[in-house]
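Give me the fold.
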Amino acid sequence: MAHSTLDQVLKEMSELYPDPFVHMLLPHEKFRVISTKLDKELTIKTRLTDRAMMLETADGKRILHFEFQLRYRRKVAERVFVYSGALTAKYNMPVSSFLLLIKPSRLVGNFGVYRADLFSKTTNEFTFPVIHLAELRDAILSGKKKYRVLAPLLLEIGPKPKITLLRKVRDLINLETNAQRRNELISFVVPIARRHFGLRAIQNVLKETAMNTNVEWEKLPYYGEVMKAKKREAREEGFQEGGVIALQGVLVDVLKNQFGHLPDRTVRAVQAIQKSGELRLMVRKSLKAESLAEVQKLLLARKAKANGRNGHR
């Protein structure tokens, strides 16, 4: 920063007479200054980096920052650049930024770059290393301990996975001797595998373990939440089904009390009604009906309307 007095003078000069300052930077280019009153306070919209950590190194403390990307998008270079600058300002120390790319891509090599161009010339350039997980596939498949935690990502690195790859991932996880860590790795597998396989298939494969592991499935992150949701749905469906059956019984009883013996076709027509609201309405109408024929006419009208909704003639 310039001396405070000079700094203030330069700010005022560049606001009142911007052209000479631009000419100093771009002596051979044509331009037109649109405004010198842009907001000078840099407030970056709140964003969350994928991961930032502080390291103690031989060079002192450093920030290691990396972003995860399933597929490479050109916009990600700008994001890495912005995050790196924000982290540098926040922690006042050097930041090393990396991009971890899961799917193979021909759009980027070992380094990504964010460029600012002016008059078709690059004026600023920010580069960052790109780690291609696809290049680590063989190392992960080898079962080496340092890569074992990456085993769940095998399901995304290559083309659409088959169930045999899910079994291979399970076998790699089973190499882990620490039960808690093994369960944690299983919990990482589930949400990734759900992108490609049904929940029952995933559970069956993960239960085919070579180790006597007592996994408490409903306590696992992701998996447990899905299982609990499915059980809630099943209970709700059971309650709803039970309520419908009960209302069908009520309607049959009302008709028997009103009109005596019911033909089988009338009972079947009642049992065909699967919505509790319709059954309650039919009970109320049956209580007001003067004859069974009147109720049968209502049942036939309901059936015809239902068939019309379903596209039947």
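The first strand starts at residue 51 and ends at 57.
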